[in-house]
Design brief:
With 118 residues, the protein is α/β, with parallel strands linked by helices. It is built from five helices and four strands.
Length: 118
Amino acid sequence: MTDNAFDFVFSKDSIVELPEKSSIFADLFRVTKRDGWIIVSDWFRSDAPYTDEMRKWATTGDETYEMDSLSSATAYVSQVGFVDVELDDRNDWFQKFAKDDYERLKGPQNLDARLTPH
């Protein structure tokens, strides 16, 4: 891919799958024009290490996830040369969304009563 080729680069939910992330940010910087923008929307975690439960979830199954912390991602993009880095931690929003989604999936409270034959 040509250096300085894009005014705008967008990545959505793909960096989480890469075990080594610094090189992807270097490539994003390389292909983005000097006055261009990148927007990355991805899964990140807090600076705390994975719990045993989270490590099991992230490494079990067909897909594995290597969530990095927001502070690490900020360091990567700054180290490769990006300036004016802004972060939007959406954890609080997502936590509420996931809880609401869970409640919707549970369905009506009296579903069992309606399914029981009379």
